[in-house]
Amino acid sequence: MALSRDRRITMQGYLLLTPSMLTLFLVVVFPLAYLFYLSLMNFTFGRVTGFAGLKNYFHVLTDSIFYESLKVTIIFTAWSVVGQLLLALLFAMVIHYSGAFEAGIRLLVILPYMISEVAGGVTLRWILNAEFGFVNWILMSLKLIAHPLNFLGEPAYAMASIIGANLWISVPFATLVLLAGLKSISTEIYESAQIDGAGFYRSFFSITLPLLRVQILVVLLIQTMFSFRHFPLPYAMTGGGPGATTKLLALVLQEKMMYLVFGYNAALSVIMMILTLAIAGLYLKFMTMGKE
Known about the structure:
Layout: H1 5-39, E1 41-44, E2 47-51, H2 55-61, H3 64-96, H4 102-110, H5 117-127, H6 134-141, H7 155-183, H8 187-195, H9 200-211, H10 213-228, H11 232-237, H12 249-258, H13 262-288
Antiparallel strand pairs: 1-2
């Protein structure tokens, strides 16, 4: 019996979606399912030796290293996200109102985004070197310091250094998102506000920020997720040191992987995923608040 026209169109749609659905399954669904499976198994030195139940999760949640790294990760994420948002907002405003210089300033701002994070981290490690680093040479030449500062070897400076590096690498993306939001705001709104006597600051807080609400929340969501699982810059610059002052959760995963403790790693990865989804859920709740 011949299929109806609507049924044929539906089947064609499913056929067209099949490659994408298979790719999604192979790239996302299967790895997540396998990760959850590994987190429930005794999997050490590359061999599954039996069912572990929640033992791996209990091991992670009772491990002091997890809580120390979680604290470091939260500090790194909070400062990175707040810094990225403020700097991106500033750069977006400067680019938006720079007139004829917009293209040149925009190129300078987004240039770091073209650099590999590992390459950038290695370069910054040399630039911040305590013995022959360029930053120490500049500071000593200007008589701002009497002795070289150990930016990556002192706990007081190491976290600030990797946060600064993360800002340098990540701010361009946030700037482009906010700049796109600024470009979408009609100039007529600002003209009406000026007629009513609103100055720059009043327009910024009463018009620009409210109308950039969605873009700001998108930046917060994406940058929080990226910063929470960040690995390249801390690994390339400090390796988690000095001590464990910059050992983010991603570096704990790398360290455990070296010892082939895959069950612990799988459980930690699941916990990190749950924490990330919880943060994303909070952002999405704020994003939709007031729209219902």
